[in-house]
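Reopening this one. Same input as before:
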Amino acid sequence: MTQPLRTPLAVGILAFGASFSAVASDMSSRFTDADGDLVADAPMDAKDWVDPDTLVFAYTPVEDPAVYEQVWDGFLKHMESVTGKRVQFFPVQSNAAQLEAMRAGRLHVAGFNTGSNPLAVNCAGFVPFTMMARDDGSFGYEMEIITRPDSGIESVEDIKGRSLAFTSPTSNSGFKAPSALLDAEFGMVADRDFEPSFSGGHDNSILGVINNDYDAAAVANSVLNRMVARDVVKPDSYTTVYKSQTFPTTGYGYVYNLKPELAEKVQEAFFSYDWEGSALQEEFKNSGEAQFIPITYQQHWAVIRTIDQAMDVTYNCN
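Same output, byte for byte:
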């Protein structure tokens, strides 16, 4: 039976998020934040702006990059039309590679997963401004802890003494949120109460559970739903024993020192894109996404920063 997020913790997270968002950030000394919105300001001097002939775009590495290069192809052609630039898809293999590419100036526009957004903002100068949403403007996904129907695990407590797969240390739903919630709600800590491992991705964790590599796994249900929709995973091959509150999904944005006029064109490309009949619509329709909506890191990522602080995560990368 699925166990929902317990009210006291949910209230605590939301209340604490408001205060945490107001404290000093761990932003790299390379950046300035004069307006206090928690993201890096564009350089004042035009000589510090970047205006590349080719914009490099990367989608968060949650599944096979080759699949998503095709999914994003139509959108990137639209961005080329709006910006007047060539746009190249960069198939990153890990969150660390994606972060380092933007920090090194090799990546200009990207979708960073929920948990990586704070690190990208503070260490790489990422400026998120949009995310996918449903037709009614609602958005987000939940973290689920899944297991096999025949595993003998019927509740979170049953995972004690068993194996639990995480995805990567920077993932919100694949590591940070489940670690914080398992400790806060159930008093369960990795290595002491269960055997942890890192699979490298949500798809790996899901398939690992189904193939009996792990007894259970913490995953984003947006990825799970897409795998079910593509018939990669059968609905009866797993069961959910825990489902969290809703978290913001992948944040899309640009690097802080992109020429301001070009940054505005990048935003225009996202907000003017026609989803109808597109590969994006086909891929993400089972998660409910149907449009790009405006967001701010300060507001929409408050709960994620709170979870990070609860886990003593810092973003300082000086």
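So the earlier flakiness isn't reproducible anymore. For the record, The longest strand covers residues 239-247.
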